[in-house]
Amino acid sequence: MMEHMSGTLSSRWAGFEPRAKALYVSSFPKVERFPYGLICAVAYLPGFHFRTWYIDGKFIGLTYTLTRHSMSVIYYLAVVEEERGKGYGALILKELCKLRPRTALITESDDIQAANRVQRQRRIAFYLRNGFVQTGWQLADYSGLYDIMATVSGLDVRKARRLIGRFTPWVQSRLVRSPGVPSPGA
Question: In the chain, is it the N or the C terminus that has fewer CB atoms within a 10 Å radius of its CB?
């Protein structure tokens, strides 16, 4: 059950928050994490945003987004464990989507063989509840298979993949059709 939340949401560059690295490391599997120093350094480049989030000054989470023109891709989103289930993740998503209504994200696919399948299903359901739709596409790379979800149907997933490629130019990835997920508008 979601607790009532109130307060003012604010954010700033993550490099100033000593708890950001610990949250990053605890929230994402090692195979999905890039070296923390690298993501902090890349965040200085135009279009890269590594942010920490606060409610009335209390640290609640972090995001890593890539932006180009009118599109944004959420690469990482994490909420402090003791603050999960209080609606803060939804509040952060709402703020991000207000800034860029054409937002995509990548999330672990619902793999029946995954040890964390229930967790993956909860994440997908969370994004669906918060206005994201399945695009019918997945991103495949060395670390696994990821669903590409978006705030608008018909989002150009090839542009989203190119934007992701700006963050990880050394990673070979490809777009594949999601099995059993119709493309929006199909």
Answer: N
Residue carrying the six token digits 């999330």: 107
Residue 132: give the domain boundaries: 9-177
pLDDT digits (tens, 9 = 90+) for 20-47: 999 999 998 888 888 999 889 888 889 8
The CATH number that applies at residue 122 is 3.40.630.30
Are 139 and 148 within 8 A, CB to CB? yes
What share of the chain has pLDDT > 70, as a percent? 91
- Evaluate whether residue 3 is within a structural domain: no
- Kind and range of the H or E run holding 158: helix 157-167
- Which residues make beta-bridge pairs with 103? 72
User: For the chain, how many helices (H) and strands (E)?
Assistant: 5, 8
- In the chain, the number of structural domains is 1
Q: What single letter denotes the amino acid at residue 140? A: A
Q: What is the mean pLDDT of residues 157-166?
A: 82
- Nearest of 137, 166, 162, 164 to residue 149 by alpha carbon: 137
- Provide the 8-state DSSP code for 105: E
Give dist(CA 13, CA 44) in Å, integer: 9
Examine residue 4 and state whether it is found in any structural domain, yes or no. Answer: no
User: Is residue 35 assigned to a domain?
Assistant: yes
More confident residue, 179 or 11: 11
Model confidence pLDDT, tens digit, residues 55-97 = 999 999 999 999 988 889 998 999 999 999 999 999 999 999 9
